[in-house]
Model the fold of this input.
Amino acid sequence: MGKEGSLTDGVIKKVILSYTYVAIWIFLSFTVIVYNKYILDRKLYNWPFPISLTIIHMAFCSTLAFLCIRVFHLVEPVTMSRQLFLSSVVPIGALYSISLWLSNSAYIYLSVSFIQMLKALMPVAVYSIGILFKKETFRSETMANMLSISFGVAIAAYGEAKFDSWGVLLQLGAVAFEATRLVMIQILLTSKGISLNPITSLYYVSPCCLVFLLVPWVFVEYPILKESASFNPDFVIFGTNSFCAFALNLAVFLLVGKTSALTMNVAGVVKDWLLIAFSWSVIKDTVTPINLFGYGLAFLGVGYYNHSKLQGLKAKEAQKKSHEQEDEESARLMGDREGGDGKKINSEA
Done:
């Protein structure tokens, strides 16, 4: 009875911790998105400099990641040669810098709710680019699902009250570059046996992003900032905003490490719906019935995609266990046969 009670307590504790990690991640992700919108939107804080904001984030995250790894030794660094860094990490940093630049720029032109709807295209982009780089196998059923997601997002876009073509292009570009980055991580790092958690990712990738972003910043935003009072930003606003961005990466580390990537995907769906509700009720963005209908279709498609991926992972795991059991059985039979042959020889002698 005591053993069952302790087992139940352990399960309850694990469930509570899992929900706590999910809640922390949703809160921080929610906070970063709304905070970025607040800073960049011309009707709110009115600091429409997405490259500058991203550079501040990268500088802050690079510094804290360096302290976590090199000073406080909270996380072990990954052994990486200079050649591997230049051939693998630098391209990923370039893609990430462009993705962040474009996604932050979209907040100037689009509502928070509509941006979340457009982000539903991420599985479509990842799957399509995966096929292009031969990391995914083309399946007509999966492609049909991708088309259903795209159709739902198209309906949501059609129903958008404040549709801005430039903003949509920026967000779609951000999705494309982010999807390419995720596929490149598989090709350039995972395939070579290198696994980066969010802290080590920031340690290696953030400085690359910072360097790449400085190039467009010098030509696009620096001349404007130099001539305006906005060149002296509020350290409280940008400090807390950057800290939230760093804390979000820590939350990702906790959530994926203590639960699973699938849990994060499911939590992401909850976060998106909360952001849409917040955008409509607090920020007073217009959310039309056509918006919700289209996003609902896309949401079902994404849910089915996640379910299919989970079933595929379960099937691979079951196949792996089956092979392991077969190998163990073969080894046992071989051992029994060798033992039997030994006895036979002894009896003949």
About this structure: The mean pLDDT is 85. The radius of gyration is 25 Å.
